[in-house]
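User: Run a structure prediction on this.
Assistant: Running it now.
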Amino acid sequence: MEGRHCFAHLTIEENLLTGAYTRGLSRGQTRDELEKIYEYFPRLKTRRKSQAGYTSGGEQQMCAIGRAMMAKPAMILLDEPSMGLAPQIVEEIFEIVRGLNSRENVSFLLAEQNTMVALRYADYGYILENGRVVMDGDAESLRTNEDVKEFYLGVAANDADDGAGRKSFRDVKSYRRRKRWLA
């Protein structure tokens, strides 16, 4: 769910344990799984007895991902994981997600408006506009595509304005899609 929904009245550890509820693990197995989550999110270990509602946005996001991981999923959908977080925390969370993907073999489907960060960490991407896929491909090709750079990253290669590769607001305020995107 969008917005890092944790059970605010429960502690971080209690939130994490709710993720393993349906797995039917023994106490020892549950503790082992919990320790694995704490290895990925050391911040949560230090805050494990704190009520989730009183933790920072980044810690709540980590708690939500950790709770999902406790269920041992094959895939996790993250809806706007960077929303409202400081850039440093966003990078930390995306690095952890990358580690979970490679080490735990969990696929992540990411819905994210922060295109720059999303394409830096993704393997493959789809660009949606008004509910339609207008482009897709491996993340590197999308990141280097001139249309994506201009419309989603705010940079165009052939700008003759300030020499820094950015257009002025006056130049980009009347956004129009490329004709080939309308096909």
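The first strand starts at residue 75 and ends at 79.
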